[in-house]
Design a protein that fits this description.
This protein is mostly helical. The protein has one domain. It is built from four helices and no strands. The model has no long low-confidence stretch (mean pLDDT 95). It binds protoporphyrin IX containing FE (HEM). The site of protoporphyrin IX containing FE (HEM) has 26 residues, from α1, α2, α3 and α4.
């Protein structure tokens, strides 16, 4: 559980920083910091994978959730790496929104697994 707690903390901070940087990219500032944003994004994905994997070693293990973290993380990295080439022109905002939603889903899934694991472990101790 300790590993999951630490990974969730890093995930929260990472998504927050990536989000603020992303909004600044949108408004046309700090474009030179895109590599830092990508590194933070990859760190976020690693945290999500750690959460997915670590919950698999608890009594609340779920293979489906572990798989979900793996798939979501992979899709987020792939979209992040290649998004600039997709739908160039006036429809590019669609890719940008998808990228943003994937980033927010990463924190959503991480938080959900954290809450679920904590709840299930607590109830298994009480039983
Ligand atoms: C952790 C969650 C993440 C959040 C919340 C997030 C959010 C954002 C937002 C709001 C933007 C500005 C809109 C856009 O251009 O799409 C952006 C841009 C960008 N993000 Fe992320 N991002 C995340 C993760 C990642 C990852 C993992 C990568 C790649 C490994 C990445 C690569 C990029 C790039 C290259 C841009 C600039 C795109 C452009 O100049 O058109 N992001 N991000």
């Amino acid at each position: 559980m300790k590993v999951i707690t630490i990974a969730v903390m890093v995930l929260r901070i990472g998504v927050l920083v990536a989000l603020v940087m992303g909004i600044l990219f949108w408004t046309g500032n700090i474009q030179n910091l895109i590599p830092i944003h990508m590194l933070i994004g990859i760190l976020v994905v690693l945290c999500l994978w750690v959460i997915g994997l670590a919950q698999g070693f608890t009594k609340a293990a779920s293979f489906g959730l572990a798989l979900a973290t793996f798939i979501l993380g992979l899709v987020l990295v792939i979209v992040g790496l290649y998004q600039t080439r997709w739908l160039p022109g006036s429809s590019h905002w669609i890719i940008q929104v998808i990228h943003l939603l994937l980033g927010l889903s990463a924190i959503g899934l991480g938080e959900m697994i954290y809450a679920r694991t904590k709840r299930r472990l607590k109830s298994s101790v009480a039983a």
